[in-house]
Design brief:
Organism: Marinobacter profundi
Shape: globular
Number of strands: 2
Strand order of the largest sheet: 1-2
Order of helices and strands: HHHEEHHHHHHHHHHHHHHHHH
GO molecular function: NADH dehydrogenase (ubiquinone) activity
Membrane topology: Multi-pass membrane protein
Keywords: Cell membrane, Membrane, Transmembrane, Transmembrane helix
Radius of gyration: 22 Å
Family: Belongs to the CPA3 antiporters (TC 2.A.63) subunit D family.
Structural class: mainly alpha
Helix content: over 70%
Length: 489
Amino acid sequence: MTPWLMAGLLFTPLAWAVLTLLVNFNRGRLISWLGILVQVVVSLGLWAAVAGDGGFHYQLGGWPAPLGIELRVDGLAVTFVLLTALVAAACGWHASIYLDPAKAWHRYFWPLFWFLWAGLNGVWLGGDLFNLYVGLELISLSAVGLVALGGESAALRAAIRYLMAALLGSLAYLLGVALIYGQFGSLSIAGVSRLLGEAGTAPGQTLPLLLMLFGLTLKTALFPMHGWLPPAHGIARSPVSALLSALVVKASFYIAARIWLDLGGYLGSYGLAQLIGGLGAIAVIWGSWRALWQAKLKQVVAYSSVAQIGYLFLLFPLTWGVAEPVSLQAQQGITLQIISHALAKAAMFLAAGNLIMSVGSNRVDALAGVSRFLPFSLFSFGLAGVSLMGLPPSGGFAAKWLLLQSSLASGQWWWLPVLLAGGLLSAAYVFRVYRASFMERAGTDRFFHPSRSLEVIPMILALLSLGLGLVAGPVLSVMVLPFGEGGGQ
């Protein structure tokens, strides 16, 4: 069973990308619905296999490393595989209705969508630094193409800006990978960690870590390297913005977290951990403040992403030089933050797309009166905002509670004001959107009523984000499962 599940995750998206490239948008939509169903079923199957038997290493084609490609299939990886299936299925469903088949450029949405999904699965399951790079490049190039999908000059400018940032980040990461290989003769993260444990650190070994982290934080849009994100997320079509914010920026952070947790104890330092955490804290405040003053609705949500990404980088100080239970608690908090943010931000962007379609404008002040005509989408936007604020019983609350506890347990009390201020500022920009929508304007209201299906999708995602805190225990229990004996080759 396992070989079929792995083939379904990695090769089916690539096959579907080629198939949809050969047909128009409508036929690509039909083909993609079948592919989405396959991906969801396969993702559930792999998650169930790991939940029942534990994680395993899988060798593609039966070839062992270093000649072959070894995949790391653990609880964290399958959790993100399943999250990707859920969010991508919702965004694909929304795009199939939201995008206009008559526009020639939109036919390329489906192949880019499937290449992106293949790259994401490759990153979640990757076990060595170079194959993680391959998956990351596939994600970046697909994402740039999706940003440029509309063909307008503003979209092309944002895509080029995104491409330049992605290429610089990739160059820095790849240089670090080359230095790691030159020093250790291995690209396996677990293998390098084992060699470092045997030999200890040596002069010059910190440079590869710095290069890789710089490249990955640039791709994740950590402050002050976030300049490419608001234009790209703000100008892209709403289903694309949802994919970018919910999944794409998480892939580069996921790699950075894997590297830090396995190699940071040997190559990192207290100062580096605090610096990265400090940049994350600034991102929380700065991104939230900028979101509060944006005139355009999607820019509000885009700057909110800058802020929410900042929370993720508290992983670095909260896992360096602390007791193992504290580190595990911080890792669980960050995992919940990623899942909660992915669901909430996808819901927000999709709901924002519905609101913009209805009023015919991207401006916040154009929402006046829309609360009477599109309450379902507005309610979805607010429910997603509850998770961003960190209010119970949402997944955002559970995540911030774990981060608060790990901050106190590690003696790093200075992260508490960041967690509190971020929640308050999130409430401010969400309520600003609501205030605008409940304003009344003179004259006759003219609103377009989108399909009811377009309103159902963000509502489902928002409810999942809200209820995540109630099932946080079972979700996190899969993360700590040991590697089993079966399932691999």
